[in-house]
Amino acid sequence: MTATDTPTQPRSTELREGLRGYGAFLIVTGGIALASALILTIEKVNLLENPQEALACDLSAFVSCGGVVNQWQASVFGFPNPLMGIVGFTMVVLLGVLLVSRVILPRWFWGGIAIGVTFGIGFVTWLQSQSIYDIQVLCPYCIVVWLMMIPMFVVSIGQVLIEYRPESALTRFVNDWRVLIVALWYVVIATLIWFQFGTTLWA
Questions:
Q1: What is the pTM of this model?
Q2: Can you name the CATH fold of 16-202?
Q3: What is the mean pLDDT of residues 66-94?
């Protein structure tokens, strides 16, 4: 071992363990979002079979799966959005399993991850605005997906930055403050919901 090898080995080990932690994070967040997408798909089928019956997630006039799944925004690409979620979050979980298993991903793959999570958060943000301001009904299982997609995006972008720009100030900022970024993001969404619905949310 040369003098130049000595300091790189701990860093390499740290990066590998960081990837395993990121993989476990994807399994958890992707798994929860996948379960929500599956349940929402089942609820959609139940609603088609029994259109007059209330769904288990219909909690109030403003918190209801049934009030959302029949809107055009729930099938933007011609099929129910949860089906896209099932495919996407299954891939997220599989990616997490690969990383936990110490599989080395090609460098270009991280660009694909960045594109995927950026599309996901963009789509989720649009759905949030539609649900809060246009449909004016909140779907409980959709909210679970929102809550998983936000940290998935922040942490994934941080990991992609580590792969491409490990020493940049942006990389350090995103990874050092990711918990705060996610928390503030949650606060913003909760504030928007509160100002839109207020105490009528559970009416």
A1: 0.89
A2: de novo design (two linked rop proteins) (1.20.1440)
A3: 93
